[in-house]
Amino acid sequence: MAVATPALAGTDTTDNQTPKNYLNASRGLLSWFFTLDHKRIGVMYLIAILSSFFLGGVFALLLRTELLTPAQTIMDADTYNKMFTLHGAVMIFLFIIPGIPATLGNFVLPLMLGAKDVALPRLNLASFWLWMIGAVFAVSSIVVGAVDTGWTFYTPYSTTTGTAVISMTLGAFILGFSSIFTGLNFIVTIHKMRPEGMTWFRMPLFLWGIYSTAIIQVLATPVLGITLLLLVAERTLGVGIFDPALGGDPVLYQHFFWFYSHPAVYIMILPAMAIMSELMSVFSGKHIFGYRFIAWSSVAIALLSFLVWGHHMFTSGQAGITNMIFSALTFSVAIPSAVKVFNWVATMYKGSIRLATPMLYALSFLFLFSIGGLTGLFLGALSTDVHLHDTYFVVAHFHYVMFGGTVIAFLGGLHYWWPKMFGRMYSERWGSIAALLVFVGFNLTFFSQFVMGSQGMPRRYFNYVDRFTSYHQISTIGSYVLGLGFFVIAGYLLHSLVRGDRAPANPWGGATLEWETSSPPPPHNFDCEFRAGDPYDLDDLRYDPEIKGHVRRDPESIRLHPKGAQQ
Amino acid sequence: MVEHTEPGVHVASVKLLVIVWIALMVGTWLTVSATYVDLGALNIWIGLAIATAKAILVALYYMHLRWDKPFNAFVFLASFLFLAIFVGIAMMDTTHYQDAVIPGFSPGMGS
Amino acid sequence: MTGHAHAQDPNVAHHFENADQQYQSAKLGMWVFLATEILFFGGLFCAYAVYRANHPEIFVFGHHFLDKSLGALNTVILICSSFTIAWAVRAAQLKQIRLLKVLLALTLACAAGFLSVKYVEYSHKWKHGLLWASRYSPEAHHGEQRDHAEETGAESAASGETTESSPEAVQEGLERSKIAPAASGPAGLAVADERPGEEIVAEPKNAQVYFSIYFLLTGLHGIHVLGGMGAMAWLLSLARRGAFDTGHFTKVDMVALYWHLVDLIWIYLFLLLYLID
Questions:
Q1: Cβ pairs A/C, distance under 8 A
Q2: A77-104, pLDDT tens digit by residue?
């Protein structure tokens, strides 16, 4: 046994087999639904969000199946409109916006700070319940006739169509407040609950990313809130702010909508980049390269993201001068993202790379996000956007960044922190197989969309001309491969919960504080306080084959005197 | 006398609260009176200046920013900065495309 | 930094080191929330700014139907309520519980007063048909309302009424108000028309936009006043149960911050909606 290491928090046992941890500390559904424990809230969010991903994925597979043939395949045009609207709305509002912050952020943030919980645990639970209520409204709209406006709800169609716009927008409104409260909580927690020694520039980069995301969540989401409220008011009362028939301005709606929805895409990608910094360092066995550059670039992305929303409106009737300003600013926001990519690659250089499953996803991210980001430049340039707007080129671009970026990084983070969250290791072999399926399936699905988009295939179209058929068919087959990959992931992850090897405290050799407690952690997280060191000083760790995990050479160096002792 | 609660939090004096209240009343009277004097385009800016002065008084003294950690004030001011970006660009864009709009045409209003 | 061997202060939650960390966290949290409220209302102020910049005549016309004195009265009421609640925070800090209860009740009364004045204003507008776009029909009685093409629901989508392509065709096809645009403005309406020295303007096109914005801004503000009243009632019940006897005043402080913001927003609403000239 590893006698040299002090007893880790949470290793006392209730019986011979299972240590007492946050999962088994109390039983019953109510103890979960009314919990204040950030870890349990994170796990509930995880279940909810993965379910949403499944639902959104089902809509995607249905609409891709419809597009197998140029004419009607399995559904009529109105149903098709509903399919892509629901796919977009569910994926964006229910899955990807809450996504990483609500699940991995909630679980890991206090642990990385050596803290017992987030600053405002009741607000955290309220966030979760708001998500559930918003989800009920959104999903109920599917049942009462669905929505066919596209997830962007452009007026005047959204104010006049007969579909269930109100319940969907009310759902998104409530989900927005869930997002705001999560962001608020994270900002307060990071400001007020860092341990001794953890100055801003000794924080793990995952927290810089989550913090920058929280800034956007807090500043941008309220504008979405008022926009959706106005939409509901238009439909129910006929208020007429965006309705040209009543003297309103539909382009103003787009300004309102995109002022949130552009920063929203950075809510999606910043946490993914945050995960990347952790994975790149740990699985290259090296200190992160360019810590300050990566930290500042997160903040820069958050701030610059508010200045470019008009690039979604180049062909909507926006004035020429506005188009030019937004195009120029759009090019600037690419720079901090590129800074991060260079620093990650530099981190890998001369590192000792371990191709564990999290790293496979991190490497996929590097490749896929770079493609997605670079194709954004074509859309940011006015002369090319005029031709590419509302084509499949746009669809491919945002799937490369949102899926190839965020979802891939989410999978990487999930696989990285899975042992910590559930105390089990999954099968590396199946992990690698699934990662390959996902990578291949993804590229098959979306690369062909770049090509057909540049050749003029419009998006949101139910029918298409015959020369695009092969592209669509390749894309649909790719989507099936992608779906298969996700089934495999679900399979081995669920299997690991019952049959996986028990995880050590630090299976990967990370130097951040979440690895200083047992896997899974006890309800109160830690038994001592910390004086934080460098979160990327990996030399302090060594591998102990007896526990199949990593241990610190000098554990006392970061521990403050534990409970009971005086200084 | 400067009072503090146990953890060292500043307590506002009644005198200060009353002085600010009087200043806010005076400001209100000023804003209303200013509307009876026609200064053309300047009117709105004078009104905004007085309103902002009142807001600053409320924020600094009633909302305690004067004695709080400066970051709280920074958060509050930051929201105005982003609001200004939003309103500024929206106003700029809408004014520039007005010539593409049929003036006063609203089929739903019968005009 | 002390270890955890000491007994935790019962007023301090287990995940905080000490009372100060808890208090500062609550404060920062509330200021971040206020920042979100600025942006939430900000959208409506943006709509105001956009329409006023492009159609100032609508605002010059519309504001005549608002009573400046009632607006000023409401401003005074809210300023007084800010005063009373700021004092209430002081009372809670100094454990002056009876004074705290009196001040909270006064603030509640001011809020109720504000809403009563708003009720008077709203009912006046209702009576004269001065409502938001689809219900805008400036008549002496609100019984006759114009039919509007933009009713919500499946019927409108199915009937396909958006086939008009020119203003003239539309005017013929739709039922319109019986009032002709008068040089002296709609008759029998707000008191403002009789004030000496004021120029009466003819109703500009799309005058209804002003009222849409008016109701959206004051309506959303009113909902926030209601929310504040709920929070204050909660504080009063807590005070009655002795929750503030130990000098733990954070909750009062937080509600007061929210209430001051409600006051701040009204200061700008009053200026922008009522005091246009």
A1: 155
A2: 999 999 999 999 999 999 999 999 999 9
What tens digit of pLDDT does each residue of B52-98 get?
A: 999 999 999 999 999 999 999 999 999 999 999 999 999 999 999 98
- Token pair belonging to B97: 């495309």
Give the closest-approach CA distance of A121 to chain C in angstroms. Answer: 9
C-alpha distance from C124 to closest chain B C-alpha (Å): 22
Radius of gyration of chain A (CA): 24
Average pLDDT, chain A: 93
The span from the CA of C145 to the CA of A241, in Å, is 20
Using alpha carbons only, give the angle A19, A21, A24 rounded to the nearest 5 degrees. 95
Neighbours of A362 (CB within 10 A): 29
Of A193, A227, A567, the CB nearest to C43: A227
Inter-helix orientation angle A408-422/A469-499, to 10°: 10
Q: In which residue are the tokens 């608020």 written?
A: A184
Q: Are C74 and C270 in contact (CB under 8 A)?
A: yes
Beta bridge partners of A541: A552
| Paired tokens of A50 | 């993965």
Contact across the interface for B24 and C79, Cβ inside 8 Å: yes
Length of chain C: 277
Contact B71 A191 (CB under 8 A): yes
Amino acid occupying residue A69: T
- Asked if A223 has any chain B CB less than 8 Å from its own CB, the reply is yes
**A213/A269 Cα distance (integer angstroms):** 9
The alpha-carbon gap from B6 to the nearest alpha carbon of chain A, in Å, equals 20
Q: Does A432 touch chain C (CB under 8 A)?
A: no
Interchain contact, A322 vs B96, CB within 8 Å: yes
In this prediction, residues A372-390 reach a mean pLDDT of 95
Q: Chain A contacts of B92, Cβ < 8 Å?
A: 319, 321-322
pTM for the model: 0.89
Cβ–Cβ gap C46/B90 under 8 Å? yes
Q: Token pair of C44, please?
A: 């409506």
Q: Do B85 and A240 touch (CB under 8 A)?
A: no
- Closest alpha carbon to A219 in B56, B97, C37, B111: C37
What is the pLDDT, as a whole number, of residue C134?
83
Instruction: Give the integer Cα–Cα distance in Å for C204 and C264.
Output: 31
Provide the Cα torsion C13, C19, C21, C24; round to 10°.
110
Candidates A159, A218, A563; nearest CB to C35: A218
Helix axes A250-282, A392-401, angle to 10 degrees: 40
Residue A14 pLDDT level (bands cut at 50, 70, 90)? very low
Number of alpha helices (DSSP H) and beta strands (DSSP E) in chain C: 8, 0
Residue in A169, A165, A176 with CA at minimum distance from that of residue A222: A176
Top-confidence residue, A114 or A564: A114
Tell the burial category of C165 from Cβ atoms under 10 Å away from its Cβ (0-12, 13-18, 19+). Answer: exposed
* Shortest alpha-carbon distance between residue C203 and chain B (Å): 11
What are the pLDDT digits (tens) for C240-265?
999 999 888 999 999 999 999 999 99
Task: Say yes or no for a CB contact (<8 Å) between C90 and B82.
Answer: no
Contact A453, A472 (CB under 8 A): no
Contact A138, A167 (CB under 8 A): yes
> Given pLDDT bands bounded at 50, 70 and 90, which one contains residue A2?
very low
Beta bridge partners of B11: B3
Query: Is the ipTM reported for this complex over the cut 0.90?
Result: yes
Residues 6+ apart with CB under 8 A from A30: none
Average pLDDT over residues C3-10: 56
The pLDDT score that the predictor gives to residue C146 is 36
Query: Does the bond joining A156 to the residue before it have cis omega, within 30 degrees of 0?
Result: yes
What confidence tens digit (pLDDT) does each residue in A339-367 have? 999 999 999 999 999 999 999 999 999 99
